[in-house]
């Protein structure tokens, strides 16, 4: 059969001889005796021919090379096995017929024909296998030749000896061809030929199934380990975010303390005598600023007062000059007596005219006491409001510029951000508790729960204390508004008094000037009238001095009250903004309390489920132990199968050698029949009994192994059922977490709507008109109410625009979440083999999505173990909230 085995010729130049020839290797087998490898010219020509012929050969990838190697190795094993079986069958072929009777000759002939037929079948199978192995070997050889042709280059000696002249572009000697060596061979066999289970083994199919199931369970175990690692990374990210949230809470507390101190300062300013016992919390810088502002206001008020006094004195001088010209022009041509009588008549006429002017002024003042002043005050107030808004806008722009220079985002809508941060912190605390409880003992869990309860109670107490403080501050704010209203009324009264005093002062100046002119014109007249006029002049001068003092005092009080009113209005605007923030804080504290109650309810539920998950994790650990046991049993089974194969092979060889040495079965039967009972027969019977006993023991061992394999299969199916139950429980828990997340989102939206309604109500209360005037007159300041309505409409439009932007951001977030779920399902591993036996509509462990992070988590952090989920988590967080919400968190 040596001539019929192409494998013998093929393997002579097989993978182990595929290296390039080297003349130094004397022990290398030669492909032909006519090749002289010591001749460099012949080797050079052969190399050029090989390189030219291998130009069009196909270069394969590493995977294709490995597949072809595996095919060659499996076919080589089958060829060797077929060749061994063929050799055994040839040995078992009967040499000749030594039987005497006809029946034994026919039986021997039948056995010979069967053996020959079996040999022919084995020879045909061997020839087919050797022909089939030629194709992968050819492809591997072509791949090796193509790679060598592609990577072939000149020797380094050629570069070192570049000074040697080159003849027609060819080197002087092809010695450089042998200095390049490539030790890589794509046809090297990595391992020895193992002994496999025969093709007709009764338990080979079961063993293959067990191996497949064991491999599948190993893959699932690796996936569970990867998920646990991802969960650990998420827990670390949550811890970092918790520390960030604590820092934000401390910042919020500092803001509240600043707000309390400013509110305390305002209360002390409005009533220093009553609230003098309040502690002083104003810093030195703020005191210096306020002192500078008060000095500048006092300087401005003194300047305006001086200007007003100069204008009044100018008007008085002009009136005195007019009266003097009138008197002189009327009596220039008369005698002294006539002039005196004309003067007296003129004084009476002037007095009457003055009385009428005073009456008209009083009537007009009573009919419209403060119309013009109210309009002026309202205009001043509106200008102050506009200045305040422009100042706030300027400060906000400066702060945004500073933050942009530092590389930070805008920090608008701080209250909404703090509220969302609190909600996110609550959810992350729940997830953190749920995940950390899996890795702790029961005692540590109890201690941690007690600590969490104490922390929650402490936060509830802090929230209630802050709520009480807010209530007290709101009461103080209402008292401050009442004080402002009273100050406003006092200011109006002072304005009216100042106006009356100015009129009286002008009248007294007129009378004084008339008296002086009269006294200058009647010095030579009656001395009694002169004395009376002098007394009248002195009285008028005294009244004038008194009126000027009263006027100065009234102006001082008015300027002081005006300054207090301006500062109070500014503080009122600040207080209104702070009241809005306080109302939002109050709402968030109530919401936090309700969330805490819900957290208490859900924590017990999560604790129960965590216990169930712990039990299932123990079940999975038991499953892992069973898998190891199955692997050990598989190894034992493989070793026993190999022993059985070896024993069968040795038995077949021994039987063939026995047949060749002692003849066929018929011949041996004839010999045994001819031999009577003797010692040899007894020994043969003893050997036969021993072999039967060994065979029975081997069969019993095989049955025990089969029984253990069936038991292991049963246990494996049981464990798979438990694993499916565990995966179903995990899916249920994920669905409940998703439902809780959606409910929290809905509650967040509802809280936003409530905040908007409260904001509208607060704007309505804040922008109410000034109370009605004296005597039940109609409410003045219709222009101010119109401006207030316009302001409210503008704020309402801005709020609606903000709500629309928020809805758009939420719709984008939902779309990105759907895309995230789809990508995770697409990136997940394939279905397990048990999914093929699943009923339609039943979910398996591969059909369930992985536990996605909380909607309020941001991966910021790149915490999921690979690059793709990290990018998707970042997109989810950025799409879930507006950029203005995420800017402090990203900062």
Tell me what you see in this structure.
- By secondary structure, the chain is an all-alpha fold.
- Helix content is 78%, strand content 0%.
- It has helices spanning 6-11, 40-53, 62-92, 102-151, 156-160, 204-270, 284-330, 336-367, 371-405, 414-436, 442-521, 527-662, 665-674, 679-766, 782-827, 867-880, 883-890.
- 13% of the residues are buried.
- The model is unreliable at 1-26, 96-100, 155-200, 329-334, 769-778 and 829-891 (pLDDT under 50).
- It holds the Pfam family Uds1.
- Residues 43-151 form the Up-regulated during septation protein domain.
Largest sheet: none
Number of helices: 17
Rg computed from alpha carbons, rounded to a whole number of angstroms: 56 Å
Mean pLDDT: 67
Please give the share of residues in helix.
over 70%
Order of helices and strands: HHHHHHHHHHHHHHHHH
Low-confidence stretches: 1-26, 96-100, 155-200, 329-334, 769-778, 829-891
What shape does the CA trace take?
A: elongated
Strand content: under 5%
Q: Calculate the terminal CA-CA distance, rounded to whole Å.
A: 83 Å
Structural class: mainly alpha
How many extended strands? 0
Question: What layout of secondary structure does this protein have?
Answer:
Blueprint: H1 6-11, H2 40-53, H3 62-92, H4 102-151, H5 156-160, H6 204-270, H7 284-330, H8 336-367, H9 371-405, H10 414-436, H11 442-521, H12 527-662, H13 665-674, H14 679-766, H15 782-827, H16 867-880, H17 883-890
